[in-house]
Amino acid sequence: xxxxxxxxxxxxxxxxxxxxxxxxxxxxxxxxxxxxxxxxxxxxxxxxxxxxxxxxxxxxxxxxxxxxxxxxxxxxxxxxxxxxxxxxxxxxxxxxxxxxxxxxxxxxxxxxxxxxxxxxxxxxxxxxxxxxxxxxxxxxxxxxxxxxxxxxxxxxxxxxxxxxxxxxxxxxxxxxxxxxxxxxxxxxxxxxxxxxxxxxxxxxxxxxxxxxxxxxxxxxxxxxxxxxxxxxxxxxxxxxxxxxxxxxxxxxxxxxxxxxxxxxxxxxxxxxxxxxxxxxxxxxxxxxxxxxxxxxxxxxxxxxxxxxxxxxxxxxxxxxxxxxxxxxxxxxxxxxxxxxxxxxxxxxxxxxxxxxxxxxxxxxxxxxxxxxxxxxxxxxxxxxxxxxxxxxxxxxxxxxxxxxxxxxxxxxxxxxxxxxxxxxxxxxxxxxxxxxxxxxxxxxxxxxxxxxxxxxxxxxxxxxxxxxxxxxxxxxxxxxxxxxxxxxxxxxxxxxxxxxxxxxxxxxxxxxxxxxxxxxx
Length: 521
Description:
Layout: H1 12-37, H2 41-58, E1 66-68, H3 73-83, H4 86-105, H5 117-139, H6 160-169, H7 173-189, H8 198-202, H9 205-223, H10 243-249, H11 261-288, H12 297-314, E2 319-321, H13 323-331, H14 338-358, H15 363-377, H16 380-388, H17 391-406, H18 409-430, E3 433-438, E4 444-450, E5 453-454, H19 459-467, E6 473-478, E7 484-485, H20 487-499, E8 506-510
Parallel strand pairs: 4-6, 5-7, 6-8
Antiparallel strand pairs: 1-2, 3-4
Helix pairs in contact: 1-2, 1-3, 1-13, 1-14, 2-12, 2-14, 3-11, 4-11, 4-12, 5-6, 5-11, 5-15, 5-17, 5-18, 7-9, 7-15, 11-12, 11-13, 13-15, 16-17, 17-18, 19-20
Keywords: Membrane, Transmembrane, Transmembrane helix
Domain SLC26A/SulP transporter: 12-395
Transmembrane segments: 20-42, 88-106, 113-133, 164-187, 199-224, 263-285, 306-324, 344-373, 394-425
């Protein structure tokens, strides 16, 4: 019997292992993003927990995973500086969540449907490349920047490429050995022949890699101390030894900052940027979903709103649906939202019971996991397929990749979107009407039959065509089959009709509504 991909209980054998893998990827990302944001380390974990335990059940997506996002680090850093205290910033996070709820109720999620497929595929390929490039230094044990760092220009003054050059001159041998063994295991784990055995089918390779990496580093510490991995290249979770320590890590918003206008500026910025990043991530995850399910984008905005309200109330960073976690989720075989919930539960367990154990995990092992995820996102076959689709699809695709690679996710998407819109405009420019010319002894007869739908995007094409008509011709403009003509186009036709006699052009217009044309007297 075929398994229903939406059945929450029937897919536990896939969702629980996938949730564990996402947890292993998300844990250092939560901590790294908090560190880069200038916020308390624990705030990143709070947001990861809320994203898994709360937002997973409210989400409009089956496979997206929410948590703190690298794309918001600059906004958080600036927000903290502007507002002065973390508690005032938490109030901005709560207000941003309320704004996202409003966006969901007014159905603003439809914006996500307007991103061209070529741009979304370019975003996924770019994320894959960035994961590979950014993890190479961690893989070698040579990167001191935070684990979730994604921008081209880094906090230490280097950039993505110069960091790799630096890594080759500062390799930590023990971390590299762990990385290579981890990568070999993960590649072998995906072998179809091994998947026939139940052990390899149900036990995630990432879990084996993490356990083995701890064992290898323990051997290094005891028998080969020169290979022991430095603490700066291990996971680092705050250890909670009592309920009081946990309470000390939780923060409440400063409601006294309601009168501060800067709070609303920060809140509005967070709401807009977080919503855009979420919608982009959801569109991308939907493309990766093997069952091609469509997410409810308005429901997702509401879920993110609730998530940010809850996170802000207990001391968490702002959240989005995060593409790195989502792609790790899909590539690990997740089927339903249970995997995201499981990742949240593991984060809770990590805080209360597993901190000491997880602080022994080398980042080079987790870098190997992300190298595999990155490769799956940016396989050579993806580039070949885009080339086959023609330059209208390939150019926006490759421009998006390069723009994201050399700037950041949102700026890169905007550049790719601009190029995609150019090709959309060009396509509309070429197809708003049927043009037919009949030569005659007296006057050439030119028939222009308008298409079924003529929008303002077609205005430039129609004006250019009318301007280039030869003198002394007979033009017939027919809108018989047209259901909708934009006012701008109607105005352009009337202006042409009004001045055509100056070029000795006879104009007949059928089935096209007349509009008034502005004149100067």
